[in-house]
Every structure is written in C-alpha cells, then in structure tokens.
TrEMBL record:
GO BP terms, alphabetized: DNA repair; DNA-templated DNA replication
Domain of life: Archaea
Protein family per UniProt: Belongs to the activator 1 small subunits family. RfcS subfamily.
The protein's name in its UniProt record: Replication factor C small subunit
HAMAP family linked to this entry: RfcS
Pfam families: AAA, RCF1-5-like_lid, Rep_fac_C
A molecular function GO annotation: DNA binding
Residue numbers binding ATP: 49-56
Oligomeric and partner information: Heteromultimer composed of small subunits (RfcS) and large subunits (RfcL).
SUPFAM superfamilies: P-loop containing nucleoside triphosphate hydrolases (SSF52540), post-AAA+ oligomerization domain-like (SSF48019)
Gene Ontology annotations for the cellular component aspect, listed alphabetically: DNA replication factor C complex
Keywords attached to this entry: ATP-binding, DNA replication, Nucleotide-binding
Function: Part of the RFC clamp loader complex which loads the PCNA sliding clamp onto DNA.
Length: 324
C-alpha cells in the first residue's frame, strides 16, 4: 500500500454484529444462545446453514457475551477449508484444548468454521479430542450441511439451523448502513441488492459497498455489477416463451448472453427462480421445471449454451401451447 493512502474499511467487518442483539434475523437461534449466556454454560454446537446467514457472527458474539472483554483468550477460531487435515487436530486443537481456561466459567470455545470440509480422519480425531477435554473445552462447528459431519460428532452436539435472511431483514440492515455511511439507497435499490444476494447478508454488504464506491446505486448498476438481471426480465422471458413468441424470446436471450455476458446456467437458474414464484398453474409449472432441469444437465455435460437455450424456449413454447 502506498504511504499515506487512505485505509478502506470492509463493511462486512465494520458492521459485523458485536452482540447477539445485533444479529439480523435468526430470532429463535438468538434466543437459545441468550439462554446459554444466562446459564453461563453451553453444550457443543453445530451451526448449519447457507453462507452469509450469521453463523460466524453468532459464534463471535456468543463468546464475547460469555467471556467479556478478554474473550479472545478463551476462543480459538480455525477455518477447516484451509486447515482440514488430521495434523491440525493433533497440533493446534489439542494444544489449545489442553491449556486450562483462565476465565471464571471453567471452559473455552474452539470454533471450527466450514467444518464440513474436514476429512473423515480429522473428524474422527476431533471426536476423541472432544471426549478427552469435555470438561474444559466446548466446540462450535459451522457448516453448510450438517450431514457432512460424522454421526459421532452430531450425537454430541446441539444443531442450530440458520436460514437465508428475509428481504425485510436484509433491507433493514442495508438502510441502517446507508444512513451510517451517508449513502443514498432507494427502496428499489435495496430490493435489487437483496435479490442479487439471495438472503446472503455478507454478499449483500459486499455488493452495496461496491456500488456505493462507484457512486451509482441504481438497480440497473447493481445487476450489472453482479452479472445478473432482474427478476422482472426473467419473468418476461418466461412469459413470452410460454406464449410461443420464439423470436422475441430468442432476442431476449441474445441480449442476456451478449450484452450482459451471462452464462446459460445463470439464465436457467434465473428462470427457475422466476417460475417457482410465479402463479403458473401447477401442471404447467412442473413441466417447465423439468425442462429447465434437462437444459441445465445438458449444458453441465458440455452442451452448447446457445443450442440448449434455443431448445429450452422451443420446449417452453410447446408446453405453453399444449397445456393452455
């Protein structure tokens, strides 16, 4: 970094919740964690759920409220996706676990982020460590899928499932940050960020900071920056395809592929989201989803985006006419 260059705060860290009360959404989980704080004791925990839903923030806030200002002395955070082998368990985890806690609660916390990336051998070693140091160490595992954690560890933990944040929760947080940063953010733009982030608060904040730094927070700029298009455009493509307007639908696809630089998979997933929330009658919706699934499979297997998307809208035209 050049000498004298201004430091840029990363908003996902600057506005990371410092307490359980500051965590957006996840009301039931927050109440359970507050109960642990009141009891001054916690079991081993698994935080399972999609990225950006508050799992790491919840673990940090829980430790801060349990241990107070010196919480970092009683908290070890490891990212299992980077350090996923058995040596990490034998060295770092055991070394930390065997040291007697210096706090008044009598235990420490080891937080394993992305624990579903640990090898099965590392998880087996971790289970033994949990047993040996159960009196002085509590483990919190964060993962996308709790099914990837071996059953012996699952049976020793309480599983808390984090859900994607609602539009209301994301928009409320974005508005708060916009006020703090003195950035104009319209309701349409906030909703566009939510749509692009799909309930991932970390992704939403990264998008917001990126567009705010460009000086243009309009919805069109937001979708352009993330390489997506709005739900309304997917709904339009779906509608005209089902109406049998093949050439119009083909022109829409060309615009998405060429002008916006989208991939065939992006378009199929956007159409999938649009059809799931649409009011299409159930039988037609089922046919459309099957067609989308087949098109995605063929592209993943190496098919041409252009040919498969042409075939998809032709299939949708056939479905719209046959089931109308």
């Amino acid at each position: 970094m050049l000498s004298g260059a201004p430091m840029i705060d990363i908003w996902i860290e600057k506005y990371r919740p410092k307490s359980l009360d500051e965590i957006s959404g996840q009301a039931e989980i927050v109440e359970k964690l507050k109960a642990f704080v009141r009891a001054r004791e916690i079991p081993h925990l698994i935080f399972a759920g999609p990225a950006g839903t508050g799992k790491t923030s919840a673990a940090l806030a829980l430790a801060a409220e349990l241990f107070g200002e010196d919480w970092k002395m009683s908290f070890l955070e490891l990212n299992a996706s980077n350090e996923r082998g058995i040596d990490v368990i034998r060295e770092q985890v055991k070394d930390f676990a065997r040291i007697r806690p210096s706090n008044s609660l009598g235990f420490k916390i080891i937080f394993m982020d992305e624990a579903d990336q640990l090898t099965s051998e590392a998880q087996a070693a971790l289970r033994r460590t949990m047993e040996m140091y159960s009196e002085t160490t509590r483990f919190i595992f964060s993962c996308n899928y709790s099914s990837q954690i071996i059953p012996p560890i699952q049976s020793r933990t309480v599983v808390l499932r984090f859900r994607p944040l609602s539009k209301e929760d994301v928009v409320k947080r974005l508005k708060y940050i916009a006020e703090q940063e003195k950035v104009d953010l319209s309701d349409d733009s906030a909703e566009a960020i939510y749509e692009a982030s799909e309930g991932d608060m970390r992704k939403a904040l990264n998008i917001f900071q990126a567009v705010a730094s460009s000086g243009n927070t309009s919805p069109s700029r937001i979708f352009e920056m993330v390489g997506k298009t709005s739900r309304k455009e997917y709904e339009k493509l779906l509608r005209i395809s089902l109406e049998g307007l093949f050439e119009d639908a083909r022109n829409e696809l060309d615009r998405m592929l060429i002008q916006q630089g989208m991939s065939g998979i992006d378009i199929i997933r956007g159409l999938h989201s649009a059809v799931r929330s649409s009011q299409i009658e159930p039988r037609k919706k089922a046919e459309v989803i099957m067609a989308l699934g087949e098109a995605e499979f063929r592209i993943v297997e190496g098919g041409s985006d252009n040919i498969q998307l042409d075939a998809l809208i032709a299939r949708l035209s056939y479905i719209g006419g046959r089931l109308s």
